[in-house]
Specification:
alpha+beta; 7 helices; three-stranded antiparallel beta sheet; four-stranded antiparallel beta sheet; 205 residues; PH-domain like; elongated
């Protein structure tokens, strides 16, 4: 029997049941920062070279130095920001937990304070699973749900179950529940055709 995390028990509604829960695998979860960290390191190396050149040309100009330090701190944000992001993933892993219920997908995360996010199945427009090269090395994957949110530039914003075990099985299970729930909502009892009894009041996987 599934041992439901107390944190999820506190946010579930009456009649709602946790059908699956899981945590991201630590190493691949943290290693997802590698592309950002690599870019940050190249940026930092460029800034160090630029700083050395400028210092060599303006060694006797204190006014230039007082301007240069705050400028370089801001300009090198990609470098130290990428390191902070990697540290953030290490620290946030312990608070990260995923689940899906007979009504929605749930995500728990947070560094200093725990936060929850949920996606009702009727909001999901697209569901997929991605398994990259790094994921294959650790036998994990990411299940993504798109519910219509986009950035200011129009890029899609996905909600993710990142670096979980058996991603394809989790994807198929969520997809099955999603279809059943949407069918039940689209065909209420009085309108439901005889060949499609829906999933009834209580979902039974």
């Amino acid at each position: 029997m599934l041992q439901v995390a107390p944190e999820f028990e506190s946010v579930t509604e009456p009649g709602e049941k946790i059908l699956w829960q899981g945590k991201p695998v630590f190493v691949p979860f943290v290693l997802h920062s590698i592309p950002i960290l690599t870019f940050g390191m190249f940026w930092g190396a460029f800034d160090l070279g630029l700083l050395g050149t400028v210092n060599g040309n303006a060694a006797h100009h204190a006014a230039n130095a007082s301007f240069l330090i705050p400028f370089m701190i801001l300009h090198s944000f990609p470098a130290w920001g990428s390191i902070l992001y990697c540290i953030y993933l290490v620290l946030v892993h312990g608070n990260t937990l995923y689940a899906y219920t007979n009504r929605r997908m749930l995500m728990r995360s947070g560094l200093f304070a725990t936060s929850f996010k949920s996606i009702d199945y009727d909001r999901i427009q697209e569901l997929d699973v991605t398994v990259g090269l790094l994921d294959r090395l650790f036998d994990v994957g990411t299940v993504r749900a798109f519910s219509g949110s986009v950035t200011s530039k129009g890029a899609r914003i996905y909600d993710r179950f990142v670096s979980i075990r058996d991603p394809y099985a989790v994807y198929r299970a969520i997809k099955g529940v999603e279809v059943d729930v949407k069918t039940d909502w689209n065909y209420p009892n009085a309108l439901r055709p005889a060949i499609n009894p829906g999933y009834t009041t209580e979902y039974k996987p």
